[in-house]
Amino acid sequence: EVAQAHLDRIEAVDQRVHAFLHVDREGAIAAAERVDRGEVTGPLAGVPVAVKDVIATRGVPTTAASKILEGWRPPYDATIVERLRAAGTVMLGKTNMDEFAMGSSTEYSAYGPTNNPWDLGRIPGGSGGGSAAAIAAYEAPLAIGTDTGGSIRQPGAVTGTVGAKPTYGGTSRYGLIAFSSSLDTPGPCARSVEDAALLHAAIAGHDVRDSTSIPQAVPDVVAAARLGAGGDLTGVKLGLVKEFAGDGSEPGVAASFRDSLEALVKLGAEVVEVSCPHFQYALPAYYLIAPSECTSNLARFDGVRYGLRVGDDGNRSLEEVMSLTRDAGFGPEVKRRIILGTYALSSGYYDAYYGQAQKVRTLITRDFQRAFDQADVLVSPTTPFVAFPFGSRTSDPYQMYLADLFTIPTNLYGGPAISVPSGLSEGLPVGFQIMAPTMADDRMYRVAAALE
Ligand code: GLN
Predict the structure, then answer these.
(1) How would you write the chain as a 3-class SS string?
(2) What are the record's GO terms for cellular component (predicted)?
(3) What is the pLDDT of residues 71-83, one digit of tens each?
(4) What is the pTM of this model?
C-alpha cells in the first residue's frame, strides 16, 4: 500500500514536477511484495526511496541525465543500492539531475529540467534537483543524492527539505558514475533530520570496492538525531565564519539565517567567530580540481563501451566516430568542464593551475582544522539565494557557480555538512548549513535536529 500510494502520487504530479527520469513500477511492487511476504526485513523495510540517476542500478536505466548514456542498463548495483535493498527499501525509480551532476539547477539535464514544487517556474536546485523535488512533492519519503560541491545540500535548501553530505569516504562511491572522484559523496535527502539519519545509517560504512572508503565504524547518526530532538545544546559552540559575512547573500536569506542562529542560542548554544581566510579561494580551486578530474573520468564515454555511437558507417576512423559521438552526446556544461579540465592539466599549465588548486585545497583544510579547535560545528546559510526563475543564470556560468559559494569549502576539506529548512524568504524556502569535522557526522545531526 505504501509503495502503491507513492506510485499513485508520482502518476498524479510528476508530469508537472518532472522529478523522475524513470519510474520502476514493476520493480517497486515486486520489492514491496517481498517485504510483505517477510522475505526481506531490515530497518527500512517497505520504505520507498528514489535514487539519483548518476547511481548504477542493475537492469534499471541509468543515464546521469546525459544523451551519451541513453538506454544504458547497468549490469550491477552500486554498493549503496545493494545496502538500500538489504535494508528493505523499495526503489521507486531514478531522479533527474544536471548532466553528470554538473550544475546547480537541473537546467543542464538532457531530458528537460525539474520544476520546484514550491513554484513550478523556478529551479529545484542542482545537481540533485530531482531527488529534492521528489521529497518536497511527497512523491517519495526518502531519496539518494550525490554531493561533489553542494548537489545534495543546495537542492535541499531551495526545496525546504533536509539534505546531508556525509564525510567523504563514509559512504561508498562504488557504482557512482564518477564526476570528480576526490569530492563525490553520496548521501541522504529527506523531509526530517531523523529520516535523513536513518537513510544515512542504511547506506554508510566501509566498502572494500572503494579505495577511498574509510575503514572505521560510522558514528551513530540516528542516536544523535534523536538526541537533538529535545533541543538542549548547552555547551555547543557554533562557529560563524567571518569571511562569509560580506558575501552577498540575499537580505531574506541573511535574515532567516540570523533567526535560526538565535533559535540555537536560545537552546543553549554559544556563537564564536572563526576566521577561514582561504575560503575565498574555494570556488576557483574547485573549478580547477572538479573539471580536471571530470576530464579524466568522462574519457570512458567514447562511443565504444557504452550507449550512444554516432557516425559509425564503416567509412570513418575510430577517432572521427569518437569525436562525433562525444559532440552529439554531451551537453554544453559538460563540454565546458572537459575543455576547462583539459586546459588545466595541459603540459606547461599543470603546476600553475591544477597544482596550485591542490595547494589551496590544503590551506582550506587547515582553515577548517583551526576553526574546529575553537568551535564544535561551523554554520552558514546553505546558499546565498532562494530558488531562482528558470533561465536567469544559464547565460553566465559564473552566476550559476555562485550557488555553491558556501557548500564547496566542505567538499574540498572532506567533512560532513547538512542543510536544514530555516524558514522562508518571500515565500520560498531557505536552508541553514551545519558543517562538522570529518567523521563527526553525528555532531551535525544533533545540532540539525535541535533546529528542527
Ligand atoms: N554545482 C556544482 C557543480 O556544478 C556542484 C555539483 C555537485 O555537487 N555535483 O559542479
Answers:
(1) CHHHHHHHHHHHHHHHHCCEEEECHHHHHHHHHHHHCCCCCCCCCCCEEEEECCECECCECCCCCCHHHCCCCCCCCCHHHHHHHHCCCEEEEEECCCHHHCCCCCCCCCCCCCCECCECCECCCCCCHHHHHHHHCCCCCEEEEEECCCCCHHHHHHHCCEEEECCCCCECCCCECCCCCCCCEEEEEECCHHHHHHHHHHHECCCCCCCCCCCCCCCCHHHHHHHHCCCCCCCCEEEEEHHHCCCCCCHHHHHHHHHHHHHHHHCCCEEEEECCHHHHHHHHHHHHHHHHHHHHHHHHCCCCCCCCCCCCCCCCCHHHHHHHHHHHHCCHHHHHHHHHHHHHHCCCCCHHHHHHHHHHHHHHHHHHHHHHHHCCEEEEECCCCCCCECCCCCCCHHHHHHHHCCCHHHHHHCCCEEEEEEEEECCEEEEEEEECCCCCHHHHHHHHHHHC
(2) glutamyl-tRNA(Gln) amidotransferase complex
(3) 999 999 999 999 9
(4) 0.98
